[in-house]
């Protein structure tokens, strides 16, 4: 065990005795003067040579020009990533690329290891260096004041090489689990589609439904427009953010709470933004104007409609713009399979059980991803701060 000393930096703890601590400005060169936003006229055209266009959170586009050439460390200056955990995104850009004014551009001085400091800057705490709340920002001035741990150059390179190997292994495991989750999601959708459009009897005689997304249906079924069995209403902004009613928009999950409420169950459908993720809501809720809420008015189970809505061919209906959108008319005129109520209940019961099993497996896989992410972060922290030594 090598001898340790106090780093005299609250967030860094103890470090090896022969390591030092100094401000970033003495380790890094800053090239923020070369950053520039890209206007629409510079975006790539067919046949152009494409270069990565970087922002606060990584690659955001491909364009036909570049501002930098070489290998640099980039770190987010502002954006949503700073709101969540005061932890800017750190990454290395190499080759020819363009950087906008939302990411700092750095290179190391002398023969310091760029990879070593990239790893270190992924895990250190920036809480005391980020200003603002509504628009958090890591300014160039404050970034220069960030305290970094500096081992001898030879150790920097040895630690970076070790972490490159270990993190590559972790990233491979992570990618494999992510692929498994995607496969499970696709399987879940196929199970829902099969049950909603074909029923539960694999031997039933089928007929053409006349609806492209539905395909063939059992001969005793029909298809009807959504408007025959459901009402769809607009959402609105709550009058007050005080209260504990979850507020939903398009996409998945609620994003705040409020005092007003509507009573579920309901199905929420995206009006603009993320329009292809219906949500099943029970209890009290509120929906803003980016989401419609749906209620049954006929003899069609609302839960079965939720499953059917998970299979809709949204691409043929959503407005093809930067912000996809759907109208009430789009949804009300969707045609869905129709069967007797008893068969509806059987399908819903089957899907409730089957989807719960798949969701449980997905949840376990997501927990594995979280465990791997925490392990990776802990591994990096232990070695870049000298708590552990590369053999």
Protein model, in words:
It is a single chain. This protein has 391 residues and is of the alpha+beta class. Strands 4-9-7-8-5-6 form a six-stranded mixed beta sheet. Among the domains are: 4-151, Adenine-n6-DNA-methyltransferase TaqI, Chain A, domain 2 (Alpha-Beta Complex); 222-338, DNA methylase specificity domains (Adenine-n6-DNA-methyltransferase TaqI, Chain A, domain 2, Alpha-Beta Complex), CATH 3.90.220.20. Strand 1 and strand 2 form a beta hairpin. 32% of the residues lie in helices and 26% in strands.
Question: Which helices and strands appear, and what pairs or packs with what?
Answer:
Blueprint: E1 4-6, E2 14-16, E3 20-23, E4 28-30, E5 51-55, E6 58-63, E7 68-76, H1 80-85, E8 90-99, E9 103-108, H2 114-123, H3 140-145, E10 147-150, H4 153-198, E11 206-208, E12 216-218, E13 222-225, E14 230-233, E15 245-248, E16 254-258, E17 262-263, E18 266-270, E19 279-281, E20 284-287, E21 291-296, H5 302-309, H6 328-332, E22 335-338, H7 341-384
Parallel strand pairs: 5-8, 15-20
Antiparallel strand pairs: 1-2, 3-10, 4-9, 5-6, 7-8, 7-9, 11-12, 13-22, 14-21, 15-16, 17-20, 18-19, 18-21
Helix pairs in contact: 2-4, 2-7, 4-7
CATH superfamily grouping of the domain at 4-151: DNA methylase specificity domains
Largest sheet: 6 strands, mixed
Which value, in Å, is the CA radius of gyration? 27 Å
Cross-sheet strand order for the largest sheet:
4-9-7-8-5-6
Assign the structural class, choosing from mainly alpha, mainly beta, alpha/beta, alpha+beta, or little secondary structure.
alpha+beta
The number of helices is 7
Q: What is the distance, rounded to the nearest whole angstrom, between the alpha carbons of the first and last residues?
A: 12 Å
Helix content: 25-40%
Inertia-based shape: elongated
Q: Do you know the CATH architecture of the domain at 4-151?
A: Alpha-Beta Complex
The CATH topology of the domain at 4-151 turns out to be Adenine-n6-DNA-methyltransferase TaqI, Chain A, domain 2
Strand content: 25-35%
Q: For the record, what CATH class of the domain at 4-151 applies? A: Alpha Beta
Mean pLDDT, to the nearest integer, reads 91
Catalogue the unreliable spans: none
Work out the number of β strands: 22
